[in-house]
Amino acid sequence: MNRHRILIVEDSPTMRQLLVFALKRLKDVDIVEAQDGMDGLRKVTSDHFDLALVDINMPVMDGLKLISLIRGEESLKSMPIVVITTEGAKEDRERALALGADEYLCKPIQANKVLQVAKGLLKVG
Amino acid sequence: MIEKREGLFSRAEEVLGLFRKGAEFTQELLRENERLRRELARVETQQLAASDEQQWEKLRRELLARIASLEGERSDMLERLRSVEDENRHFTERYIEIEEENNNLASLYVASFQLHSTLHLQEVLQIIVEIVINLIGAEVFAIYVLDEKTNALSAVASEGAVLSDFPVCHLGQGLIGGALASGETACSDSGDAEDEIGEPIVAIPLRVQERPIGAIAIHRLLQQKAGFTPLDHELFTLLAGHAATAIFAARLYSQSERKLNTIQGFIDLLTK
Lengths: 125, 272
What we know:
heterodimer, A: 125 residues, alpha/beta, 5 strands, B: 67% helix
């Protein structure tokens, strides 16, 4: 059985650790961490991922820019992207979804919600 | 001759009378026989009916007993089903509670782990900021540190507004100073107006044992955060102890680093 590969792009080590904790409860997953948008872009274009969790406010390259670059890449068009952000405004959500994000979760996050969304996008039970 | 004929007629009449009586008797016997046969048939029918009725009654009693027994079994089964359903519901509730507890513990563990992952004051402050944003969901807040000589509390890190927007306060005064003096997290119903920094909605004292170190003052929550949850209160408690220890340790470390550098400078000067 294939293992699922998940990329977490988040500048906060606290959030990254929390997301890793939540996602490790999925079976057969490999989790890779990136600390900003640029690092995330480098990793997502050099390796295969089944899911990416992306923060919006990050140094070097923000999450929205990263999403638009990912969606511009033919081979990455179908990779599910979950936005995890402090920006709870409706227009922020709409902008991220219009750029190609599949889900939009606001902080503070609930681990079970992240897990549920990841399961849905990875199509695992 | 005539007498003789009359005697013969008389005898014939007698014989005929006898025959008539015999015929009547026979008729009567036949009627009686018919009546008795009917009576016999009636009695036989009654007997048969009586026998069927007894069997039916017996069968009915058996069926009723069986129905009663099945009713009892059904009732037992329903009772067991209800009990299993209750147990199942209880397990589901417990599972959800344990899941939630597990998630909360993960958040507390991550917060604690991150707070003690460095000895550099700026990194410690940054980690506290991250915890307050990401785990509590605050939008505007500041971390205050106490100056032990003047008892003044000044903001050393903030989010949502610049440091200078957060007023200096004093130990024992106002919500922040009062919380630090008492060691109890203080909450206020009156939050900030949109654009000004006034009284915080929560002031979390940072103390190492009884020694006051500083405070975290939360002025506004993220718009999607409706209010504080039980986990937030757990995080307040964790921050009150662990953030204070982390700040205290980082300050001691930086002081010792400075002293070490000074001593090393003297040693270098003397040994040259």
